[in-house]
Specification:
globular, mainly beta, disordered N terminus, 6-stranded mixed β-sheet
């Protein structure tokens, strides 16, 4: 509404001027320049719209760069995107969910020029027509419509230096000729993800401490091929193929462990030392193919969309976990225990979706559709535990081998239908009402389960998920909207595979086939002023939250001397000491509420030399969970409780400063701060990061330097203290401070029309793989 009012103001100003000075009515007046600014950020119905084409920061940036600077969006690790107040962000392109896995999607976004984007839509509470889970939001990237035939593309190379050096390269091409469009991408790279850990847990009588490093080398290669053919003016047929491969060989864990036990008899503490040295070789392959048919049924925009897809995911993982008895200086003495794990996972998914959107002349829209997903996961796990015993002279005396194989097969069928009504009543008021009904049937079987309950696990869910929203434009400057949505969150396939991921001998994570789906209820109230300032109030209620719960208990283990031999009592029997065992159990953990209030601004200043996006808000978390039994084994632990409330401050600002008149030099200054807050594992201490960037545009070339976590403050620390005296502390440094240098070159006819991006029928399943 801003543009028509401005034109009217110019007209009536001129009219009044003519009435006052009639003698000049025959003179020709010259208007040198009239600038009508387009709204860059605005609220529309159920979404926020960021008009990238009207933004001054587009040139030379990648799509990922622009997304990080979009209001309500953020990235703390330069890999994942989050929407304020949401668990996760699902990427859509031209209204269709992207047909890529997480790794290849990031590479695609980092190698797609931002000049190709028309606008970015942020849907904080998706409607019933969207197949999303939990409190996930949607980022819809709308590409420009370019009509020319020809070939275009880009090449990008980058090198990063954090703890280790890494490099990436990609090549993308887009070809269009008449009714045929083809797009393809090939990208790859290698890096070593380095981390350091400090882990402490226990109480006054016994405790563990582990300090050391984890280094994970990765080599990646992937790409996609999309072919789109226009059958006639009203129908299109498309085939898309996406592939991604990862190889991570010689991934290592090197932790020095100190265990302390209280000796009541002698009134002192007994200390033992070990080294945990683990090696892992893993590789994974993700391939999917999707066939799409789209038919436009009338001139109003009604259409039928049909998808059929096949997804194959394979992961092969072999680990060698060693516990080595050492002295207080960390020097190895002898091998105590060795655990070999062979952890394959194969997932096959067949999916189909049908959607029909019917538009009527009175701005009324009906959407109806359904989906079917059939998934089978095959996990043929092999575990072998070797315990080494020695004689008094330290010579190897024997090896005890304890094999624990477990072949776990999981079958799942999901049926879903939805119906949505949308009505624009007038220029000020619009509303949307819908519901999704989902049926989930699953069966998990195990041929060598630890308990009889694990031999066959059946789940059946029938869920009605309502949705309602409205949007009211009070006047030209003020807009208010409200949305409510109910969703499910199904466990990922790897979360229900009952295996242990060993960190140290007494510290490991345990997956759980008993995990059931959780429910989420989201509501959001938004007020926007002048399309530049906004206030968002959000409330989410999570029932049966799926998370990791740290359970710890005392276990008895033989006391060892300085040489690693068992210490015997006067009866020549081993003396047993209490030791702490810590299990991170993946399970349903009570309920949780999250409430947030956020104020934001998105504006340009100083004749577009400064573009700023600033958010500040409060988040209040209410946790209500307790657990005392390991559901996978029945082992009893002291109760772990998290019934703590916390309120924290969140600040985020992204700023782009144009350094010259020609718009070729840009400086970026980005900062975020998250106050300490209570999460499921305990109190997460405050986090912050300052990131700087410098960019130069030169013809079709873009040169960029990015420095992340300049102050080295983005380090995770979690601490928890229980009423029963147990404590748990985690410090994880992922060495986020680093520098990335990149070069991008765009070639060919930049007016080539983009290939139609197709939503895949298996996309909802992909998010549940690794």
């Amino acid at each position: 509404m801003k543009t028509p009012l401005l034109i009217a103001a110019i007209f009536f100003t001129g009219f009044a001027f003519a009435q006052e000075k009639k003698s000049d009515t025959l003179k020709t007046k010259s208007i040198e320049e009239v600038t009508i600014k387009k709204q860059v950020f605005k609220k529309q119905s159920d979404r926020f719209v960021y008009d990238v084409a009207a933004s001054p920061i587009t040139k030379g940036n990648t799509t990922f760069d622009i997304l990080k600077q979009t209001p309500l969006l953020s990235s703390t690790d330069d890999k994942t995107l989050k929407i304020a107040g949401k668990n996760n962000a699902i990427i859509y392109i031209n209204g269709r969910k992207s047909n890529m896995d997480a790794d290849s999607l990031v590479q695609f976004l980092k190698n797609t020029p931002a000049e190709n984007i028309q606008k970015i839509e942020v849907i904080t509470v998706p409607g019933s027509e969207y197949q999303v889970e939990s409190s996930d939001g949607i980022i819809n990237i709308v590409l420009k419509k370019k009509m020319s035939d020809g070939l275009s593309g880009n090449m990008r190379m980058s090198n990063s230096q954090n703890k280790f050096n890494g490099s990436n390269a990609s090549f993308s091409a887009n070809y269009r000729k008449d009714k045929l469009g083809i797009s393809a991408n090939l990208s790859g790279g290698e890096n070593i993800q380095g981390q350091s850990y400090v882990l402490r847990n226990g109480n006054d009588s016994s405790s563990n401490e582990s300090v050391g490093d984890i280094n994970d080398p990765n080599k990646n290669l992937g790409g996609y091929l999309n072919v789109d053919y226009q059958l006639n003016d009203n129908s299109n047929l498309a085939l898309s193929w996406n592939t991604w491969a990862n190889k991570s060989y010689n991934s290592t864990v090197d932790l020095f462990n100190t265990t302390r036990s209280y000796d009541k008899k002698n009134d002192n503490y007994i200390t033992n030392f070990t080294n945990s040295r683990n090696k892992e070789d893993a590789r994974s392959y993700n391939n999917s193919v999707n066939l799409n048919y789209e038919l436009k049924t009338d001139s109003l925009g009604s259409k039928l969309n049909v998808n059929a897809a096949y997804l194959n995911y394979r992961r092969f993982q072999f680990t060698d976990n060693r516990t080595i008895i050492s002295n207080m200086n960390g020097n190895d003495i002898r091998l105590g225990q060795q655990v070999f794990q062979d952890l394959p996972q194969v997932i096959n998914n067949f999916s189909g979706t049908v959607d029909y959107i019917k538009k009527f002349k009175n701005d009324f829209t009906v959407s109806v559709g359904g989906n079917y997903n059939k998934t089978k996961t095959n996990n043929d796990t092999q575990n072998n535990t070797l315990d080494y015993s020695y004689d008094e002279l330290g010579n190897l005396e024997g090896i005890t081998n304890t094999p624990t194989p477990n072949h776990f097969v999981y079958n799942e069928n999901i049926y879903g239908v939805y119906l949505t009504f949308e009505q624009k009543f007038n220029d000020k008021f619009s509303g949307k009402l819908g519901a999704r009904y989902e049926i989930t049937n699953s069966v998990g079987t195990s041929d060598n389960a630890a308990t009889p309950d694990l031999q066959k696990i059946e789940r059946k869910y029938n869920n009605l998920l309502p949705y309602v929203s409205f949007n009211y434009a009070i006047n030209e400057k003020n807009n208010i909207s409200y949305a409510f949505s109910s969703r499910m969150r199904r466990p990922s396939f790897w979360e229900i595979n009952p295996v242990r991921n060993i960190l140290t001998e007494d510290n490991y994570t345990q997956n759980n086939p008993f995990v059931k789906a959780s429910s989420t209820y989201n509501q959001e109230l938004t007020y926007m002023f002048k399309s530049s300032y906004f206030l968002i109030l959000n409330h989410s209620f999570y029932k049966d939250v799926i998370t990791q719960v740290p359970l710890q208990r005392d276990i008895l283990k033989p006391r060892l001397d300085e040489m690693g031999n068992p210490v015997l009592d006067e009866n020549n029997q081993p003396i047993m000491d209490q030791r702490k065992q810590l299990r991170y159990i993946r399970t349903n953990f009570g309920d949780k509420q999250e409430m947030s209030a956020m104020l934001g601004i998105q504006r340009t200043f100083f004749k577009e030399y400064l573009t700023t996006n600033f958010n500040i808000g409060l988040q209040h978390n209410i946790n209500n969970g307790s657990l005392s039994i390991d559901p996978t084994s029945g082992d009893v632990f002291p109760t772990y409780e998290n019934k703590i409330r916390s309120t924290s401050v969140i600040i985020q600002t992204n700023n782009t400063i144009r350094l010259d008149k020609k718009k070729t030099w840009f400086l970026g200054v980005n900062y975020f701060y998250v106050d300490k807050q209570q999460i499921e594992l305990g109190m997460l201490k405050k986090l912050m990061s300052l990131d700087l960037s410098l960019k130069k545009n030169w013809n079709e070339w873009t040169f960029a330097v990015n420095v992340t976590d300049v102050l080295r403050t983005n380090i995770v620390e979690i601490e928890d203290y229980q009423d029963n005296g147990n404590y748990n502390y985690v410090k994880n440094d992922q060495f986020r401070r680093g520098m990335t240098v990149s070069i991008t070159y765009n070639f060919g006819n930049q007016k080539v029309k983009k290939v139609r991006d197709i939503e895949g029928a298996s996309d909802a399943i992909k998010s549940r793989t690794r």
